[in-house]
Amino acid sequence: MAANMLDLAKELPPWVILGLGFITGGLRAAWRFLYEHTVGYAITRVSISLTVEDVEHTDAYLWLSCWVEKNLRGRKVNSLLLRTRQNDSDDDSVRPSEFEMIPEYGTYYLMYKGHFMMAEHRKEAQPDINRRRPIRSIRLQIWLSWDRSMLLGILQEARMNYEQTRSKRVDYFRADAYGDWTGSAIPPRPLTSLFHPPDLVQDLFLDVRMFLDSKQMYEELGIPYRRGYLLAGPPGSGKSSLILAVASNFELPIYSVPLRGTGITGERLAALLANCRKPSLIALEDIDCLSLATSRQSNTKDSLTIADLLNVIDGIGASEDRVLFMTANRPETLDFALTRAGRVDRKFYVDYARDEELRSFHQRIAQYLPVQAWPEFRAALPQQATIADAQALALQGPLEVTPNPGSYNPYAEYQGAPG
Description:
- The chain contains 15 helices and 13 strands.
- It is of the alpha/beta class.
- Among the domains are: about 45-170, no CATH class; about 185-350, Rossmann fold.
- Strands 8-7-10-11-12-9-13 form a seven-stranded mixed beta sheet, with helices on one face. Strands 1-6-5-4 form a four-stranded antiparallel beta sheet. It has a two-stranded antiparallel sheet with strand order 2-3.
- The longest helix has 23 residues, at about 15-35.
- It is elongated and about 90 Å long.
């Protein structure tokens, strides 16, 4: 029968086929118009809805997607979406990355506190010309209710459920190829795993705590509520470990801003930082490797300039309620405007590890691995060694020892810098 219909269609004149297409399209448009102004209008008048888009509020979209998934578990959902699940348990038998299936994009029906609710999980078919990634959204519609507090209750419940499942992880976000944040969960870094001078760690953590507890004071004084830190020191000295430990201890999400090789513009960078959770930790690592941070000469082809970077850090309209960490191996090469007071409030020098720190690491690693006795272990390390060197020696074997670079000349204002 299908073959007969196909033969019949081939025999029809083109104008007939075109006319049938116009008639079909007109009927669909007429039906949509009638529905939206009758049944659809009536449903809208007796319901309340909320739409959350991932580009507008990434976190809320993530909360709701997990909430809908949780409420649909056990239901006979035939259309599924495969994704990678992060392991948040302490069970070593569970692999750190497994697959799970969640409901695919579509419309689902739920009950919430005795009210019938519709959840639409949608993905934009074709992205706008100004965007490179389609928008994903979740639309909740509660029928026979006009109570906005129900929607707020769902959001609060979704957020609590999400945070309870992620409480043992640090949320880590990095800008993707589309210029949006892509999130994952990484293991936290406890203070006991740090091998830095205790006075440096105590000073840094106390300063962050005082800042996070001083929001009202900043608002009353009219001071922008943000604080900047610069961690300087040789490679492998544990600057990134300190940042992760701060985020873990104060339960802050980390937003890592890649400034090289992404074609990111100042406008896009400002939009990214404005779309961060509050409070949050912004990480600009190895800032001294960025040419625009060390030289004011910019190429006309550069998509990001030093002015763009300075403006998003503390210009008019720059995001607030955040802690900014920058790291550098050679801070003396940085543009002074980038490290001046107000943009960088505190500077810490993370030096090569002292013998007592290396010995502390040796004692801890010896609880898990057979390692050399301390005298032999220390002799196998460079004279100026980092914890990264000690870790490599314990896990990989003897190091290829090379002469240490010339004397390092950090600024005298850095807390913890050697005299």
